[in-house]
Amino acid sequence: MDCIIAVKSQTYASRGGRILHNAGIPYDIVSIDPSFTRHGCAYGLRVAANRCSEARAVLKKHGLSYGDIIGGNALYEK
Questions:
Q1: For 15-64, how does the pLDDT look when each residue is reduced to its tens digit (9 = 90+)?
Q2: How far, in Å, CA of 33 to CA of 23, rounded?
Q3: Is 68 in contact with 28 (CB distance < 8 Å)?
Q4: What is the pTM of this model?
Q5: C-alpha–C-alpha distance, residues 1 and 19, integer Å
Q6: How far is it, in rounded angstroms, from Cα 31 to Cα 19?
Q7: 3-state SS string over the chain?
C-alpha cells in the first residue's frame, strides 16, 4: 500500500518530487480531492508505505511543508 503526502500546490509537489528524487525515493505526483484533506491540499506525493517516514523526514529536512498523510499506516496524520 502507498501513502500520499499532501501538499498545498503543484509547485510544492514539483519541489518535493525533486527532493525525493535526489534522495533516491521513488514517487509520483498525484492530484487529490481537496475535500479529502483537512487543509484543502489538492496535490500529493505518492510513495511506497514502507518509505513514507523516510520521505517525510527528507522533506522536513529540506524545509518543504506538507499537510496530511493519506494511506500508509494512518488515514490522516500531520
A1: 999 999 999 999 999 998 877 777 776 899 999 999 999 999 999 999 99
A2: 27
A3: no
A4: 0.85
A5: 22
A6: 18
A7: CEEEEEECCHHHHHHHHHHHHHCCCCCEEEECCHHHCCCCCCEEEEEEHHHHHHHHHHHHHCCCCCCCEEECCCCCCC
